[in-house]
Amino acid sequence: MKPIGTDKLKEALNLLHEQLELHDLPKTELVVCGGAALIATGLVPRTTRDVDIVALMRDGCLVDSEPLPGFLLEAAAQVGKMLNLPPDWLNNGPAIQFRMGFPAGFETRLHREEIGARLTVHYIDRIDQIHFKVFASVDRGGYHISDLKALHPTVEELYQAALWCTEQDVSEGFRILVREMFNQNGWKDVGERI
Predict the structure, then answer these.
(1) Would you state the pLDDT for residue 74?
(2) Whole-model pTM?
(3) How far is 131 from 125, CA to CA, in rounded Å?
(4) Helices 126-139 and 143-150 sit at what angle, rounded to 10 degrees?
(5) pLDDT at residue 147 above 80?
């Protein structure tokens, strides 16, 4: 199965819209984070294996993406077969973030792309990517740190993201891990402020 780059992402979303149209399914609005959002907004040139849905939008309001509507999963499965994508290429893995809370102003910064009459995708903003990537870098490291560095965050952006992260997990142990992640990745001036 091939990774998803810019062209494959556009193709997959266009086909997803076609499936919604073909079967006369409800208008759907996805709020997407992670690699797919980095690719679609041109922030980081890379590939991904999936499209992470952090929330849905209904009538202009963010709503929980847990569970994803059955019709959407069925449409995504058809697209996956057509493009030889992983079965979970469209998923709500980060859905818990909706319940934990988003950074202040999250909704106002979304980047809207209307794929068609039945599908709209809202990609999260660079600032929110920084917040999410700091949290993921502490938790999982790896490519999340690479993504974070590729976003070229300022010291103040990293500090604000760190404050938000320590509100997500208020334990002293997590605060220590946040500090260590910054110190190990060349951001000691941020680590010292945590």
Answers:
(1) 98
(2) 0.96
(3) 10
(4) 150
(5) yes
Using CA atoms, how far residue 26 sits from 20, 29, 102, 162, in Å, is 7, 10, 26, 38
In terms of Cα–Cα distance, which of 140, 143, 108, 142 is closest to 127?
108
**pLDDT over 90 at 2, yes or no:** no
d(CA 27, CA 143): 33
70: left (phi over 0), alpha (psi -120 to 50) or beta: alpha
Confidence class for position 139, pLDDT limits 50, 70, 90: confident
Residue 30 tokens read as 């996805």
d(CA 107, CA 25): 25
User: Can you read off the two tokens belonging to residue 116?
Assistant: 């068609």
Q: What is the pLDDT of residue 118?
A: 98
* Tens-place pLDDT, residues 24-56: 999 999 999 999 999 999 999 999 999 999 999
Buried b (16+ CB within 10 A) or exposed e, 121-137: bbbbbbbbbbbbbbbbb
